Amino acid sequence: MTHLDALLIPERYSSDKLRVDEAVDKFAGDFVHSGKPFFSICYPPQLLTTANAIRSRRITGYQFVRQDIINTSVQFLDQALVEDDNLVVLFVKTVTCG
Protein backbone atom coordinates (compact mmCIF):
# COMPACT_ATOMS: atom_id res chain seq x y z
CA MET A 1 0.00 0.00 0.00
CA THR A 2 2.93 2.36 0.54
CA HIS A 3 3.46 2.66 -3.20
CA LEU A 4 -0.08 3.97 -3.80
CA ASP A 5 -0.97 7.64 -3.48
CA ALA A 6 -4.73 7.13 -3.86
CA LEU A 7 -7.26 4.40 -4.60
CA LEU A 8 -10.27 4.50 -6.94
CA ILE A 9 -12.91 1.78 -6.91
CA PRO A 10 -15.07 2.30 -10.01
CA GLU A 11 -18.76 1.71 -10.53
CA ARG A 12 -20.58 -1.43 -11.57
CA TYR A 13 -20.57 -4.55 -9.44
CA SER A 14 -16.83 -4.74 -8.75
CA SER A 15 -17.19 -3.87 -5.07
CA ASP A 16 -19.89 -6.47 -4.53
CA LYS A 17 -17.58 -9.13 -5.95
CA LEU A 18 -14.53 -7.80 -4.11
CA ARG A 19 -16.12 -7.62 -0.66
CA VAL A 20 -16.35 -11.40 -0.31
CA ASP A 21 -12.54 -11.57 -0.24
CA GLU A 22 -11.21 -10.95 3.28
CA ALA A 23 -7.82 -9.76 1.96
CA VAL A 24 -9.54 -7.13 -0.18
CA ASP A 25 -11.71 -6.05 2.77
CA LYS A 26 -8.62 -5.62 4.92
CA PHE A 27 -6.76 -3.74 2.19
CA ALA A 28 -9.69 -1.35 1.59
CA GLY A 29 -10.19 -0.74 5.31
CA ASP A 30 -6.48 -0.17 5.92
CA PHE A 31 -6.31 2.17 2.93
CA VAL A 32 -9.21 4.32 4.17
CA HIS A 33 -7.67 4.46 7.65
CA SER A 34 -4.26 5.40 6.19
CA GLY A 35 -5.58 8.86 5.38
CA LYS A 36 -4.72 8.58 1.70
CA PRO A 37 -7.45 9.63 -0.77
CA PHE A 38 -10.03 6.93 -1.42
CA PHE A 39 -12.44 7.56 -4.29
CA SER A 40 -15.52 5.54 -5.14
CA ILE A 41 -18.30 5.74 -7.68
CA CYS A 42 -21.79 4.32 -7.00
CA TYR A 43 -21.39 0.81 -5.52
CA PRO A 44 -18.05 0.78 -3.64
CA PRO A 45 -19.57 1.79 -0.30
CA GLN A 46 -20.59 -1.89 -0.10
CA LEU A 47 -16.93 -2.82 0.11
CA LEU A 48 -16.30 -0.20 2.76
CA THR A 49 -19.25 -1.32 4.90
CA THR A 50 -18.01 -4.92 4.82
CA ALA A 51 -14.52 -3.72 5.76
CA ASN A 52 -15.94 -1.70 8.69
CA ALA A 53 -14.04 1.26 7.29
CA ILE A 54 -16.68 3.97 7.33
CA ARG A 55 -18.32 4.03 10.75
CA SER A 56 -19.23 7.57 11.79
CA ARG A 57 -18.43 8.90 8.32
CA ARG A 58 -20.61 10.75 5.81
CA ILE A 59 -21.26 9.00 2.53
CA THR A 60 -23.61 8.65 -0.42
CA GLY A 61 -24.34 5.75 -2.75
CA TYR A 62 -26.53 4.00 -5.25
CA GLN A 63 -30.06 3.06 -4.14
CA PHE A 64 -29.22 -0.65 -3.92
CA VAL A 65 -26.47 -0.05 -1.36
CA ARG A 66 -28.24 2.65 0.68
CA GLN A 67 -29.56 0.27 3.32
CA ASP A 68 -26.13 -1.33 3.75
CA ILE A 69 -24.72 2.14 4.32
CA ILE A 70 -27.41 3.16 6.79
CA ASN A 71 -27.08 -0.13 8.73
CA THR A 72 -23.39 0.59 9.33
CA SER A 73 -23.86 3.65 11.54
CA VAL A 74 -22.90 5.92 8.68
CA GLN A 75 -24.50 9.27 7.97
CA PHE A 76 -26.11 8.77 4.56
CA LEU A 77 -26.43 11.95 2.49
CA ASP A 78 -28.74 11.98 -0.50
CA GLN A 79 -26.50 14.01 -2.77
CA ALA A 80 -24.28 13.45 -5.78
CA LEU A 81 -20.91 14.01 -4.13
CA VAL A 82 -19.82 13.55 -0.55
CA GLU A 83 -16.33 14.34 0.68
CA ASP A 84 -15.45 13.32 4.22
CA ASP A 85 -11.77 13.81 4.99
CA ASN A 86 -9.91 11.38 2.67
CA LEU A 87 -13.08 9.63 1.51
CA VAL A 88 -14.72 10.93 -1.68
CA VAL A 89 -17.87 9.22 -2.96
CA LEU A 90 -19.64 10.10 -6.17
CA PHE A 91 -23.14 9.03 -7.06
CA VAL A 92 -24.72 10.52 -10.16
CA LYS A 93 -28.48 9.95 -10.19
CA THR A 94 -28.80 10.75 -13.87
CA VAL A 95 -26.38 7.98 -14.82
CA THR A 96 -27.21 4.34 -14.27
CA CYS A 97 -24.54 2.84 -12.08
CA GLY A 98 -24.25 -0.77 -13.05
Task: Describe, in plain words, how this protein is organized in 3D.
- By secondary structure, the chain is of the alpha/beta class.
- It has four helices and six strands.
- The chain has helices spanning 14-18, 22-34, 45-50, 66-70; strands at 7-9, 38-41, 58-59, 75-76, 81-84, 87-90.
- The strands form two sheets. A four-stranded mixed β-sheet has the order 1-2-6-5, with no helix packed on it. It has a two-stranded parallel ribbon with strand order 3-4.
- A hairpin with a 2-residue loop joins β5 and β6 (87-90).
- The longest helix is centred in the first third of the chain and has 13 residues, at 22-34.
- The radius of gyration is 12 Å and the shape is globular.
Name the descriptors.
single chain; 98 residues; alpha/beta; 4-stranded mixed beta sheet; two-stranded parallel ribbon; 4 helices; 6 strands
In short:
The protein has 98 residues and is α/β, with parallel strands linked by helices. It has 4 helices and 6 strands; from the N terminus they run βααβαβαβββ.
Strand order of the largest sheet: 1-2-6-5
For the record, give the distance between the C-alpha atoms at the N and C termini, rounded to a whole number: 28 Å
Order of helices and strands: EHHEHEHEEE
Mean pLDDT: 82
**Shape field:** globular
Going by helix content, strand content and strand pairing, the class is alpha/beta
Radius of gyration: 12 Å
Q: How many beta-strand segments? A: 6
Indicate the multimeric state. Answer: single chain
Instruction: Give the low-confidence spans.
Output: none
The largest β sheet comes out as:
4 strands, mixed
Helicity range = 25-40%
Binned strand content: 15-25%
